[in-house]
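Thread: Modeling a multi-component assembly for a lab meeting

Hi all, long-time lurker, first post. My supervisor asked me to bring a structural picture of a complex we are working on to next week's group meeting, and I have zero experience with this. I have the sequence lines for every component (297 residues in total). Could someone generate the structure of the whole assembly? Inputs are pasted exactly as I received them:
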Amino acid sequence: MKLNGLHILLTYQCTFECDHCFVWGSPWQDGVMTLDQLHKVLSQAREVDSLEWIYFEGGEPFLYYPILLRGVQMATAMGFHVGIVTNAFWATSLTDALTWLRPFADLIEDLTISCDLYHFSELNSPFVIHASAAAEALHITLGTISVAQPEETNISRQVGQIPSGSSAVMYRGRAATKLVGRAILKPWTNFTSCPHEDLRDPGRVHIDPYGNLHICQGITLGNVFTTTLREICEGYYADSHPICGPLLKNGPVGLAQEYDLQIEDQYADACHLCFESRRALREQFPGFLLPDEMYGN
Ligand code: SF4
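Re: Modeling a multi-component assembly
Sure thing. I ran the full set together rather than chain by chain. Output:
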């Protein structure tokens, strides 16, 4: 496995509780990485030669502002490129946004802001506008994540139109519960490959506040609080992983078939079948399908 990026979920907590959230972020979630744990994770990251980028995300990482800032300082001092993903809840005015962001100027190389109708009631909310203007003023490169509504994705499958700059909903995490009712369903046998993750050689992985290393949200390869990141990467054999192996053979269909799961006739997309199959397999593979937070428990 040749990792280029490590995404640190500083917390599962978030100011929002979006219907499309992969990680079930909400104000009521548990799980926050401590500064000591963060230092341990970054030290391990340094042992992986191919790693260049560290992203801080969540949940909402700005909820733990001093820890986020210290983490960014540590990561840049170690020579990593650093980015942050945020919902910009903190950008209540341009002046305030500049105050929040200024300490990160010259440290981060990317600020990615979630801006869609799941987070705010308008696409370009004042929060997004203030955060974007502050980033521009501080010469921080800005990115956006915008996820389309299910109906827009449905339309795109019929006539090829999805709003420019948006990506389609992936029906995993909370979306598999909250948004599926608005999706056009298709036969389960359609989903014979994983469309979004390179499960054999992922370029980036996520570490959650409990140390779980996720190849896709809720599919874990090990825990960096008990085994080092480098050892986990070196010991990963995709074909023998009980979840990734079947997914690699025949996608979510392969996962359901491998374990003879009782499934529905139709699903919204590959992630929906994958997520529901994994939910059904959690008791059988407790060491690979965790934590509870990723499954809405
Ligand atoms: S099919 Fe499964 S492993 Fe692949 S991206 Fe979707 S949820 Fe993740």
